Amino acid sequence: MYKDFYGLKDNPFRLNPDPRYLCLNNAVQEAITAILYGIRSRKGILLLIGEVGSGKTMLLNLILDRLQKSEVATGFIFNARENAADFLELVLTDLGIEYPAGASRAQMLTRLNQFLLDRSKKGQVTALIVDEAQNLSPEVLEEVRLLTNLETATEKLLQVVLSGQPELIYKLVQPRLRQLSQRIAFHVRLRPLTSEQSSEYILRRLSVAGADPDIPIFDDEAMKKIHSNSRGIPRLVNLLCEHSLIHGFVDEMFPISAATVEKALEDLALSLRPSTALADAELQQ
């Protein structure tokens, strides 16, 4: 609707996790480097924590793409709520490991172990990424720990990235999961964008969508208002920018001003309310 008016070839603030739109600021680069290092160095379990809308899934998609190009076998499990047995089936299926119908847990573990050993002997790495891990039950989280027991005398056979919202940390500190917590090699946390990073993020997405870099679409005050009201959370930045573009198009506003952003804020009053998890997490720091 507004693309022609603003000289865009694509919708710059769509919410799907398209890696083309990933803004590789220093913090994101460090997170990617740390996770790739942990996987390739066979560190075992890695933890990625970020608030809702912080860009975890987009970052994981980019990591998956880089791993697959380097011949790392990958499994990706999203929003699993199954019990431990179903979770194990998901792992084997996503890694492309065949097993007979009605196979027992022991049989599935044997297939998985042989698959991992065969790859390890060839110097190949296998990684499992579990997104939205805060939704996993303690039973399934314990199954993750048991999967990392598959090892040789010198290395872990399966590298696991647990990605989730801050609530995941609260689960992991439960006494019943202390063995899993103790095996986490290191934590990576995606922090909200700073004001400067928010502006960089907006300009990056506009550029990818075909905007002319010499013709500003948002003025400086508009971008400051977007940052302060989104709290630097990329998904909320996207929502505010998208609604601001719609209002700007309707009002024929070019560049978009803080007043136009204010109209978008009225549309998104509920979506922009801080979550309890974010508030709690900040109090813990």
Protein model, in words:
- The protein is an alpha/beta fold.
- The protein is built from 13 helices and five strands.
- Strands 2-3-4-1-5 form a five-stranded parallel beta sheet, sandwiched between helices.
- Strand 3, helix 6 and strand 4 form a beta-alpha-beta unit.
User: Based on DSSP secondary structure assignment, what is the total number of beta strands?
Assistant: 5
CA radius of gyration: 22 Å
Strand count, sense and barrel status of the largest sheet are: 5 strands, parallel
Percent range of helical residues: 40-55%
Distance between the termini: 43 Å
Provide the CATH architecture of the largest domain.
3-Layer(aba) Sandwich
| Element order: H for helix, E for strand | HHEHEHHEHEHHEHHHHH
- Per the CATH scheme, the topology name of the largest domain is Rossmann fold
Q: Any idea how many domains? A: 2
Which spans have pLDDT < 50 for at least 5 consecutive residues? 276-285
Q: Report the total helices.
A: 13
State the secondary-structure class.
Answer: alpha/beta
Instruction: Describe the global form.
Output: elongated
At the fourth CATH level, what is the homologous superfamily of the largest domain? Answer: P-loop containing nucleotide triphosphate hydrolases
> What percentage of amino acids are in beta strands?
5-15%
Q: Average pLDDT, to the nearest integer?
A: 90
Give the class-level CATH name of the largest domain: Alpha Beta
